[in-house]
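TICKET #2291
ISSUE: user wants both folds in one file
ATTACHMENT 1:
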Amino acid sequence: MKNMTKWYGFVVFLLAANGVFAQQKKPSLFAAYPNQITCSEQQLNQLFTANTGNTVSLVLPGNLLLQGQVKNKITKYGQIQTLAIQLPAFGNILLSVSRHQNAQNHTIYSARLLSNQFADGYQLKRNSNGLYQFEKIETEKLLPVCEAPVIR
């Protein structure tokens, strides 16, 4: 009986290990680009002049050209504006850019460039000098893989 329990444990271990190794590593989309890319407020503001269906371009240092069609432009709560831009040159990944006014009436921007199909992306952050920078992120840390439980 002890041998049967050992074999059962070994089989369970092999099945579990097989499931872990079966997950494929996602490709990196931005491996050739810098980890940090500076972007001006003027460049970000210019994106919001476009309407749904228009093509926009964001030319960034490091030869990164983000060009695509505005798929969605919405305003929430009368003050938060958000654009969704589809980028065909990068596997139709979406660039989501938002802006709003803070309590001091300054315009604040946020943006993410990511997809669950790729291992990397960018997130817009404002540094201590007030400059906006796209910082490279690992999407698997932001978008954890969720597997549905098997019901038998």
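ATTACHMENT 2:
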Amino acid sequence: MRRKYLLTFASSRKPSARSFEGTRVPKLKTHLPALSLGGMAFILTASCNSEATLCPQWIPPPILVEVRDGATRLPAAQGATGWIQNGAYTAPLAPATPSELLVLAATGGPGTYAVVVQKAGYRTWVKDGVYVRGSKCGVDKPATLRADLVPGL
């Protein structure tokens, strides 16, 4: 004789032995966590959310300025200063690393900037309307500029 089992689920009612085809069936209790439709919808939404954005830990600066002496074409970033401005936002330009001889960088996000580079013994270099494209994570790719500083005041 083949045994068949029925599962009884935990509920507020007291489970009882049920019979099947005239044979007494042993009780098996199965405890399943009860999820409401709202809870299931939340789980599905969270796991299938296509709007989630994963951003890299390092976000590039909006603008990199390659600073050169206009006459000799040699790197001239050491000792140079400046800033970038987008509306009311202003950030200083500084060497990308302490020993950097060529490139100045600044922090910021996407937008349209005015860029100013100054260095003693050179004329002030200005570039307006520098557009930096962005996304949810910030800057997609920095705008790279070349500032050829002209000697003189």
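RESOLUTION: both attachments delivered.
EXTRA DETAIL ON ATTACHMENT 2: The CA atoms of residues 110 and 133 lie 5 Å apart.
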